[in-house]
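We were asked to recover a plausible sequence for a given structure. The inputs and outputs are reproduced exactly as logged, with field labels preserved.

PROBLEM: sequence recovery
POSITIONS: 280
GIVEN STRUCTURE:
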């Protein structure tokens, strides 16, 4: 009886799935030395590409170093194109990542340079420049590497009801103050309606002070002084609310990203993704 021929399994680390996991670990996670190195290189590349866009908008610099900036632009475009394709390759649901917020940001940071090739001619120069400005949105990707953003999101969510009550109280005060100022000053001093008075109250309470309208009577100036003092004290309230929640809900967040849906913000001891349930 002949024995079946045994085909050896592919060496560990050589299979496509193993390669996909390795790329995912490097690109989406920052807990490993390779992931940290990739993040540093990517952040430097993002800042450099944004700096190129800024320098290219300066006419004198563009006239002197236009060719060099053009080459650098294409270098970073190709670099981010490869990065975008690798991100799609290493996640199990590439469409989900491509339609996510940061997936769209990645795409918007890459395609404008390619689109400029389809719009040649001097009459399209302004359109091309506007498309190239979209590359500045790459800097939004920096937020993916700030793990504290998850703690801030939790704090804002936990304090949302308190902030809404606070905003409702502020709006009520502004309506009362705006109506009172309309009655005190009147149309002859610029307060032609209650909405106009409310506009003045908002500008004054937020300490912006455009100066387009201002109270002229003694009573109006006294009320304005009280509103200014109230504005300084009010600005600190939402900050205190969010800070208290951040202290209460402070926790350590892992940089590990789900290989299935690419979501992040998991606890260090998490075994499954809290969004799709896949194993981490």
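RECOVERED SEQUENCE:
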């Amino acid at each position: 009886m002949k024995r079946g021929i045994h085909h050896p399994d592919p060496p560990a680390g050589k299979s496509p799935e193993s390669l996909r996991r390795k790329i995912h670990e490097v690109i989406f996670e920052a807990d490993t030395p390779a992931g940290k190195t990739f993040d540093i290189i990517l952040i430097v590349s993002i800042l450099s590409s944004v700096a190129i866009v800024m320098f290219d908008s300066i006419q004198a610099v563009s006239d002197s170093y236009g060719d060099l900036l053009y080459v650098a632009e294409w270098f970073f475009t190709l670099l981010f194109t490869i990065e975008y394709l690798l991100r799609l390759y290493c996640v199990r649901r590439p469409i989900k990542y491509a339609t996510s917020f940061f997936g769209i940001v990645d795409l918007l940071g890459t395609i404008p340079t390619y689109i400029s090739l389809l719009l040649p001619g001097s009459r399209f120069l302004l359109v091309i420049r506007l498309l190239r400005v979209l590359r500045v949105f790459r800097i939004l990707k920096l937020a993916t590497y700030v793990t504290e953003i998850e703690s801030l999101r939790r704090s804002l969510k936990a304090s949302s009801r308190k902030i809404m009550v606070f905003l409702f109280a502020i709006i009520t005060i502004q309506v009362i103050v705006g109506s009172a100022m309309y009655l005190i000053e009147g149309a002859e001093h610029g307060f032609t309606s209650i909405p106009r008075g409310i506009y003045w109250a908002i500008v004054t309470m937020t300490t912006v002070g455009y100066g387009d309208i201002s109270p002229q009577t003694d009573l109006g100036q006294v009320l304005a002084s009280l509103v200014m003092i109230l504005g300084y004290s009010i600005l600190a309230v939402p900050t205190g609310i969010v800070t208290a929640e951040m202290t209460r809900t402070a926790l350590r967040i892992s940089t590990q990203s789900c290989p299935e849906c690419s979501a992040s913000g998991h606890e260090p001891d998490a075994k499954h993704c809290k969004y799709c349930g896949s194993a981490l």
